[in-house]
Automatic annotation (TrEMBL):
<keyword id="KW-0238">DNA-binding</keyword>
<dbReference type="InterPro" id="IPR036388">
    <property type="entry name" value="WH-like_DNA-bd_sf"/>
</dbReference>
<dbReference type="GO" id="GO:0003700">
    <property type="term" value="F:DNA-binding transcription factor activity"/>
</dbReference>
<feature type="domain" description="LysR substrate-binding">
    <location>
        <begin position="96"/>
        <end position="282"/>
    </location>
</feature>
<dbReference type="Pfam" id="PF00126">
    <property type="entry name" value="HTH_1"/>
</dbReference>
<protein>
    <submittedName>
        <fullName>DNA-binding transcriptional regulator, LysR family</fullName>
    </submittedName>
</protein>
<feature type="compositionally biased region" description="Polar residues">
    <location>
        <begin position="306"/>
        <end position="331"/>
    </location>
</feature>
<keyword id="KW-0805">Transcription regulation</keyword>
<dbReference type="InterPro" id="IPR005119">
    <property type="entry name" value="LysR_subst-bd"/>
</dbReference>
<dbReference type="GO" id="GO:0032993">
    <property type="term" value="C:protein-DNA complex"/>
</dbReference>
<dbReference type="Pfam" id="PF03466">
    <property type="entry name" value="LysR_substrate"/>
</dbReference>
<dbReference type="InterPro" id="IPR036390">
    <property type="entry name" value="WH_DNA-bd_sf"/>
</dbReference>
<dbReference type="InterPro" id="IPR000847">
    <property type="entry name" value="LysR_HTH_N"/>
</dbReference>
<feature type="region of interest" description="Disordered">
    <location>
        <begin position="297"/>
        <end position="331"/>
    </location>
</feature>
<comment type="similarity">
    <text>Belongs to the LysR transcriptional regulatory family.</text>
</comment>
<keyword id="KW-0804">Transcription</keyword>
<feature type="domain" description="HTH lysR-type">
    <location>
        <begin position="7"/>
        <end position="66"/>
    </location>
</feature>
Amino acid sequence: MNDWAEFRHFLYLVTILEKGGFRPAAESLHTSQPNLTVQARQFQQYASVNLYRKAKDGRIYPTETGLAFIPLARSVLEARDEVIAAIIAIERGEIDAIRLGSSPLADHELFRLLCSMHKELMPGCSVRRSHGDTTQLAEALLAGELDAALVTLPLKHTDLCVRDLRQDRLVVCMRRDSPLAEKAAVEVSDLQDNLTILYHPNRHPEAHARLMELLHGAGLQIEEYSSASHPTEMQALVKDGYGVALIREGMPLDEVLTTRRILGVDWTVDMAVAYHRERHPKTIPILVRKLRKIAQPTSAFPRKPPQSSTGNSESGIRSASQTPVQLQLLR
């Protein structure tokens, strides 16, 4: 194991790299320059890495490994602070109940896992669950009526911390006896005049607008459609023959339904945990960090690099060989 590595090593080295030298780093950390030199040398020797190169003028320039080390070290230090804050809050009895919410478009298994993780962390703490659309959950978080919520994106608010969890592929849901079901995968053009079931635009206006933008960018014109306010309603409409719908790959299906991937695009649904930046139980960041490690896509689909702030990610239609585009809501 790496028992030789201590938190001070990460703090010292990230400060050296960010300040660009030992002297400014020593001044910032209120320690001696020789101490920093010894600690930095020992860490690199034990880990067998080179984090920086020193120029003739004495300036420190991060290597490729050093550039990667900076955000990784910051993550280690953030985890340390989150753990300390959590145990202090628990010791003071500040967390006697936790209120968790989930969007109907999010993965229910992830929500159950989130709830059970907190119960495992604090067995004596009651977990109160609620459900609502992303917009409703965000309002509840801002009003202090919820502590954290599993949502589907986009969600943008400066007072909310939105931590990405997972990215799942969007697929076409259809009846098994549909002519499209005879294909191993469908073309984008197959959706024209067949994609006639959408999640109700009023339930998440930003997501609906983004969906229409993506469909238009792929050359599709969706003029008339049936709308549903819940994923089960979408499946019911497909089952009753009202058309096909876009859903998250891997979600449970009615036995008369099936799904097909869409050739040429990789549209996805992004799930995240949101909580108030200032007013949140100190156990929430711990749970989110753990959940991000174990939350895996429902299929062999790469998860995008995590973001830790507002989730204001840009999206666009790209080919299947490129980075997946984030549709960010439909399920």
